[in-house]
Specification:
Blueprint (H helix, E strand, L loop, with lengths): L1 H36 L6 H24 L14 H36 L11 H4 L1 H21 L7 H20 L5 H11 L1
Helix pairs in contact: 1-2, 2-5, 3-5
Length: 198
């Protein structure tokens, strides 16, 4: 499964780079044409807003999942034993997979509706319905990736990073070092010392 992830990540990254490059050239050419010739490229805002940006964002979702770069709130979970963290990872992957299936389904319904209506961008004649087809494809792929994570976790192949374990060890070592450098005296000890001084 790691090879599948690597190939898919390379394909997604290359596609996102190409789309981003095209978008940069497109925006720059539009600005230059507007300033020099007073004639901007037609439908630039619509093409960028309805085609290029959504594609980059959707590909970014998949790339983040493949790299396991989505934002995690590990304040609570990072202190738990590895087995419990694995169970939380399975639960969260199951939740994300379920939501992704829902988004894929409703995205498919909307994409088919937009295709039937031939939806265009605002007042222009630029068709935007083809981009909506990518929504169910991306979220279905995201659900499959989450299921792959769950399978790896159940097989004992950890998708949890070893950095989590290192951060737990490092933080506990830092706490011990700080405790030895700055000893904390109790309130009772302060009272005893003040009585002895009288």
């Amino acid at each position: 499964m790691t090879k599948i992830r690597a190939v898919l990540l390379r394909m997604l990254s290359a596609t996102a780079v190409v789309i981003t490059g095209v978008m940069m050239v497109h925006i720059t050419a539009n600005a230059v044409m507007r300033q020099l010739l007073r004639e901007p490229l037609p439908s630039t805002n619509e093409i960028v807003g309805y085609w290029e940006l959504p594609l980059v964002a959707l590909l970014g979702l998949l790339a983040a999942q493949l790299r396991r770069d989505h934002i995690e709130v590990s304040l609570f979970v990072s202190r738990l034993p590895r087995q419990t963290r694995t169970q939380f990872a399975i639960l969260s992957s199951l939740l994300v997979a379920s939501l992704s299936v829902g988004f894929a389904w409703f995205g498919l319904v909307k994409a088919l509706e937009d295709m039937t209506l031939g939806v265009t961008a605002g007042v222009s004649y630029l068709p935007i319905w083809p981009v909506t087809i990518f929504v169910p494809i991306v979220f279905a792929t995201l659900a499959v990736l989450c299921v792959m994570d769950i399978i790896e976790l159940l097989r004992g192949v950890s998708v949890l990073s070893d950095a989590d374990d290192e951060s737990i060890v490092t933080s506990s070592q830092n706490a011990e070092e700080n405790a030895s450098e700055f000893p904390v005296h109790g309130f009772a000890e302060d009272i005893d010392q003040s009585k002895a001084g009288r």
